[in-house]
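Archive entry. Fields below.
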Amino acid sequence: MIRHLLSGADLDAATATQILDTAAEMATVAGREVKKLPALRGRTVVNLFYEDSTRTRISFEAAAKRLSADVINFSAKGSSVTKGESLKDTALTLQAMGADAVVVRHPASGAPHRLANWVDGSVVNAGDGTHEHPTQALLDAYTMRSRLGRLAGLHVAIVGDVLHSRVARSNVLLLSTLGAKVTLVGPPTLIPVDISGALAPGTDVSYDLDAVLPGVDVVMMLRVQRERMNDSYFPSAREYARRYGLDGPRMRRLPGHAIVMHPGPMNRGMEITPEVADSPRSTIVEQVANGVSVRMAVLYLLLGGNNR
Amino acid sequence: MAYPPAAQSSPPRQPSVKVILAAADVSRVVDRIAHQILEKTQGAAETVLLGIPTRGVPLARRLAARISTFEDVTVPVGVLDITLYRDDLRRHATRAVGPTELPPGGIDGKRVILVDDVLFSGRTVRAALDALSDVGRPASVQLAVLVDRGHRELPIRADYVGKNIPTALAESVKVTLAETDGADEVKLYGGAPA
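PREDICTED_STRUCTURE:
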């Protein structure tokens, strides 16, 4: 078993499948009267968040607590970080407190990799800069598998700001490992040059959403990050929505079984219209619930046994 | 599942092997436990059989099949995975979690009979009791095992025992079943030559 989860590329097909299978068992706990398992009793999980996040932090917290681990939440605001403490010193402090796992979100790409060299415990990347967010990719894969029954052979379109999206990067890596085909769709300014070759061979790029939609099983809409809107990646929000937003008429061009995903938080009316977000094809709420199960599986597989 | 399996995974070199129960014996023993369950529970009403993976599950299914042959009552069968409740999780590499499947009627207020292949230290059963209390509240809990090999480390006993096998700690008992291993047999490894 792996020791850290830093990248979608850390997982081979067998390990990724084991996580998804374990998550399926963890999901049954949510339906029980006692939503608690004793597997991580006496273990400490630190949520180290240098960036604002609600769903990811709460999801990891719920996952750790359902496995009976002790959870320490650390957010950069109101901590010694505002006094200038470095990531390394914070890491050593956590180490001294006996953290068995550190779940880290950081605005700098690669911060979790550095952290993994400084602490003895397991490090889980909960999003680093514009780099990776592997547990999001796992929960997306889990959602696809539970809705469509398989992953191998699926055609997945990832639409929007691929350039700045850690969700997209981790998804491309994981989905190609699990045998799905990915097409990245967006304006040319928001698709990195040669991303298909650099990340995973076989990944396609398209700048025309309407041409891609009829042939996909999954369409994953990425959030347009508002802070990018002034950076002239595209002329206007309205033009972006018209060319790359998913609305009712576009949704009806999808095959009958296709699902619509979004990692959240959504900009309703921008990349996705309320009609689509609230339709039965949308898995957005399911993704949140599945996130807890998948993170339970990850924490259990990293911390449950003696893997040192 | 003999507990802990990891300790038994490498039998000593040139082990002596003794067959304790052959296929026909296993089927007779299962029949007898089925009769005993019917007798002790006065007809097996409001009773649920829960198999502990791996080999407790096919045993539970066989018992239910025999009970319905003998007295025409249907006893629901389920699976109780105990992986996350084990007390030795941290001593081994992470174990894969298996499914827990409760019968549609649930277990609340029922008489639950846990079924396992070998009763050894009793730790598996302790884990099963913990797991059970998290998935429901049975009226009572009983234990049925194919083999009791002794060496209990906890105050646990079985209500139905297929065969008592006196063993030394160094020996190991291996149950194979047609459903999981291709053939029914109970063997004792590392025992004194017969």
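CURATOR_NOTE: The CA atoms of residues 55 and 295 of chain A lie 12 Å apart.
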